[in-house]
Specification:
alpha+beta; flat; 7 helices; about 20% helix; 4-stranded antiparallel beta sheet; 3 domains
């Protein structure tokens, strides 16, 4: 099978090829690799998930012991003492009715993700988070904690020493906290006890779910599968799903078929979209954004107020009072040098950015200009405000 590689180019404002692109082309020709493609294709495994091949979340409640006085207090975390008493009773220690010091114990929630096809005896990572008013989990050890699935069954058991990413140190007048000392990791600390049954080879068909729904991308994925797998009538059902009945030659070898499919390169299509985060001033503009012919002007009105108060002090023994005389200087800058910038019809991302940079605008002013161009009907793109 032969693959055809298409290349494109981007011209600078002066009409010539950009130096970076020209350099890449020259290097490719000298080394014998041919032209360098501008749009690299992605693998199907990076674009879609296979239906049924999924992870499952687990959750459990447990106790962390061995803390250096940074555990839950008896007054604010009664459930910690109740859990400690119940655990000791199961171990044959009668402590009911006795007030225990829980400063070295903390009640925690344990979460983990059970990967697909996890087998009994394999180990997975777990996360531990304090529930009560514990100050830190540093130096603690998680006791055996069953991890339950959504069906209420125990799928793993977690236990072990915690790995803390933060710490807290304080004295009489100052304290220092780095990271979150009430959260911890348990690397390979959960042991899988139950498997999730899933017969991969018995599937009559495969379904691929795109992570970014798009009709064009779904059609390209189906076309790539049909071109590579013989007898595979793959077709796009909608913008998210691609259906592939198992070909007769691949029955009983579904894992090998998945390995063959997920390596196929596909160039995903993207919508014309601009993402704006007004809180942080972030603007992300997709390369599919196009604008009609429009003129843009931007001028900031800057008012600067400077206070330089002057103190008037009487002579000694003069009987007068010290008076503060306010002095205010107001400056107004309208920036008259700002001019109109014309953006031509069908302008691309580079033209839009170059035009806005020519106005000397910052990110927040750029947000207002983009919204104004959209309101004028000259921006063919979707604006998503985060």
């Amino acid at each position: 099978m032969h693959a055809r590689i298409e290349t494109g180019g981007r011209r600078t404002a002066t009409g010539g090829w950009s130096l970076s692109l020209l350099g890449a082309l020259l290097v490719g020709l000298v080394c014998g690799f041919g032209p360098v493609p501008l749009h690299a294709a992605s693998r199907i495994k990076d674009l879609a998930d296979f239906e049924g091949v999924r992870s499952n979340v687990l959750i459990g409640y447990g106790l962390v012991v061995g803390l250096n006085g940074t555990g839950d207090s008896l007054r604010n975390a009664v459930f910690t003492q109740e859990s400690l008493v119940a655990m000791l009773e199961r171990l044959g220690v009668a402590t009911r009715g006795v007030n225990l010091n829980t400063k070295n114990v903390a009640a925690v929630m344990v979460t983990a993700t059970l990967p697909p096809f996890a087998r009994q005896g394999s180990r997975i990572d777990a996360s531990v988070s304090a529930m009560g008013d514990a100050k830190s989990l540093l130096g603690g050890t998680l006791l055996a904690t069953p991890l339950l699935g959504a069906d209420g069954e125990v799928y793993a058991v977690a236990q072990g020493a915690l790995a803390i990413g933060g710490f807290e140190a304080k004295g009489e007048a100052q304290s220092v906290t780095r990271g979150v000392p009430t959260s911890a990791r348990l690397p390979a600390g959960a042991l899988v006890e139950r498997e999730v049954p899933f017969a991969l080879d018995s599937l009559p068909e495969l379904r691929l779910a795109l992570r970014n729904p798009d009709f064009t991308t779904a059609q390209r994925v189906a076309a790539a599968i049909n071109a590579r797998i013989e007898g595979a009538p793959a077709r796009a059902l909608d913008s998210t799903t691609v259906r592939l009945p198992i070909p007769p030659a691949w029955r009983g070898r579904t894992a090998a078929l998945l390995s063959e499919i997920e390596q196929l390169p596909v160039e995903p299509d993207k919508p014309a979209r601009i993402v704006i985060d007004e809180r942080s001033g972030i603007v992300v503009i997709g390369d599919k954004v196009r604008i009609s012919r429009v003129a843009v002007a931007q001028g900031n009105l800057t008012v600067r107020i400077t206070e330089t108060p002057q103190v008037s002090q009487p002579n000694p023994l003069g009987g007068g009072e010290t008076v503060v005389v306010p002095r205010t200087n107001v400056e107004v800058d309208t920036q008259p040098e700002r001019k109109l910038v014309v953006l031509e019809t069908g302008a691309t991302l580079d033209t839009l950015v170059d035009g806005l940079n020519a106005l000397g605008v910052g990110p927040r002013d750029m947000i207002a200009i983009i919204q104004a161009i959209k309101a004028a009907g000259a921006l063919q793109a979707e604006i998503e405000v985060m």
